[in-house]
Amino acid sequence: MPIITLTTDFGLTDEYVGVMKGVILSINPRAVIVDISHNIDPQDVTQAAYVIKSAYRYFPAQTVHVIVVDPGVGSDRAVIALRYDGHFFLAPDNGVLSFLLNNDKIEAVIRVENSRYFLKDISWTFHGRDIFAPVAAYISMGVKLEDIGNALDPVHLVQLEIQKPKISLPGEIVGTIIAVDRFGNLITNIDVNVIRFLGAEALTAIDVWIGGKKISGISKSYNSVDSGHPLSIIGSRGYLEIAVNCGNAADKLEARKGDAVRLRVSSA
Amino acid sequence: MPIITLTTDFGLTDEYVGVMKGVILSINPRAVIVDISHNIDPQDVTQAAYVIKSAYRYFPAQTVHVIVVDPGVGSDRAVIALRYDGHFFLAPDNGVLSFLLNNDKIEAVIRVENSRYFLKDISWTFHGRDIFAPVAAYISMGVKLEDIGNALDPVHLVQLEIQKPKISLPGEIVGTIIAVDRFGNLITNIDVNVIRFLGAEALTAIDVWIGGKKISGISKSYNSVDSGHPLSIIGSRGYLEIAVNCGNAADKLEARKGDAVRLRVSSA
Amino acid sequence: MPIITLTTDFGLTDEYVGVMKGVILSINPRAVIVDISHNIDPQDVTQAAYVIKSAYRYFPAQTVHVIVVDPGVGSDRAVIALRYDGHFFLAPDNGVLSFLLNNDKIEAVIRVENSRYFLKDISWTFHGRDIFAPVAAYISMGVKLEDIGNALDPVHLVQLEIQKPKISLPGEIVGTIIAVDRFGNLITNIDVNVIRFLGAEALTAIDVWIGGKKISGISKSYNSVDSGHPLSIIGSRGYLEIAVNCGNAADKLEARKGDAVRLRVSSA
User: Chain C partners of B125 at a C-beta cutoff of 8 Å?
Assistant: First the structure.
């Protein structure tokens, strides 16, 4: 059965998400619709970019991923459809697919233009309902991207400026907190491959500094430290995270999105 | 596949919504269940009435829409099933279907009475589980409304007093903010058909006043004004909305549900 | 169609729940996945235990219930699969299944060990994705528990210390508020069977005391008292609840989780 995932900033209070599902099921009654998140911070394109990058690969090939974080709705910003790594992505051209645009897994990109696949009346404020939902439904039924619009060169697409961690000193990496999850875990932009640059013998030989506080060694489980104590760990997205065992690191360490995190090989 | 939508004030923390789905799937394993909202403000029948009115038409005909915002649960308030515009609706008789009761699209109304279609034990507090969920499942399987209860005359059903906008002066309409969505957009009760009464040459020739502040012209996209500036626009429900481009109008304009909004043709 | 329910403390903002669904559907495309709650308070194993106990029986037999409230993730805590009362349960061995471990409805318990049914790479922080989701998918496809791990004796499983109500005086029961739901209803640990010990002629002959305030008689509907007034009632879980008609009892009575509630036969 064809799967369509939804990632939006619509929240779950208003009828917006339910309406998108109604439109999809009206066109493709066999679609299986899965919510990834509807609680992206309003207009936070970067947050949505990390979420879809982290989530898509756990779905079957051919899944259609719809991302509607779209502050430019109703303007002349393009809607794009992308085939990448065996999956389909449908999103506004505002950088939300930045992580999927910079390598050779791109199989096709088009500008969504064929109004035959839209609802009849297009509102000024809710293209999630009027364009994204119906186009996703048709893609899930096998309509070809080339029928929906003309090919684009990916170099012309909007790209987010993604903050990357820096090697600031020999043996030091400086990264940034890019998200705080429900548990108060601080998710950084420092992934495992970057940490290798430190050349440490083991993850336990790396110290993590945040806000003047040192955490010794990267742990392998939350309860490797006592309850209430901070630790660092490689999180499920493959990035360094700072957590508090059975607690909330954002509160405990008074840290938040944008704060700096430093890694150093511990001095023996 | 038969679709059942759910609109409740149960929230998503307690097990209530999941339990309703379990009951439905126990009876009709083929039902596709779609959440419209479970975050209706507790007991806010009016909010639910606007939500279901705005959402239902985007689902296929024959969809069963279940609305459980039910402060009178356990009392002698009736549960009603309505066939309207090709869809089914199941709700307490408390006005939540008010927008669907005043015209000729009504095809049938019954009082839900046949306990054969209920769970065996009826609790005092959770008819969503014990009555609404099983009856919805049976309707989705083709059980006829006449088997579930006796016909009612719609004139005897509870009706909400819905605030309507007023033509207060020649060339002036006064409406009310009826909802604030997740983005802080202020949704009014002034629909496009009412705006036509102003006889303006174009929507851009209409000024919108809120809390002493004037917004010139009704826009066609959020970013028709600079980021952080207010605008008015026809929203996805077909009603006038007041928004702030890339911002939160409720915060910026210190406005909330119940506040007045005035429309005037702009003086040339 | 096989049903899998999910109960977690992951929230609905991060991608975690969506990712679990992607993993499940990648293995068993026919699975119907139902959310029970993802808003369990972080690491609140007791809250999750009450939720799954209250919810599971409303699903069809053979349903696979997955509970991931798992502060010990990445440590050597076991993952267990239980067959109980015709349903399957998959959870960490941390007491979250306590209510299902103390009687003769247990049909089988195993320790989940066969990594053939896990994702290839096991993270340190997200066994919901790497172990629970794939194992649940395989169980829903008919894989036998004995293929997934070795049998355990239930007496060795972790059990929560569940607070039970006490008969403190002849004719008096003292219980505790164990949860506050979205409506502000105060859910106690006093179930109907315990109330029978009072030997009252009728529920209306029992007074309920909370924080020095007396509520006379146990009601049969919320609106048996005037709007804004407190009442007690047998809630949908079968436990005594304290509510305010069209209001919020937690706010009105300044009560919260852990507070004591007393029941006495009213003095005639």
Answer: 221-222, 233-236, 241
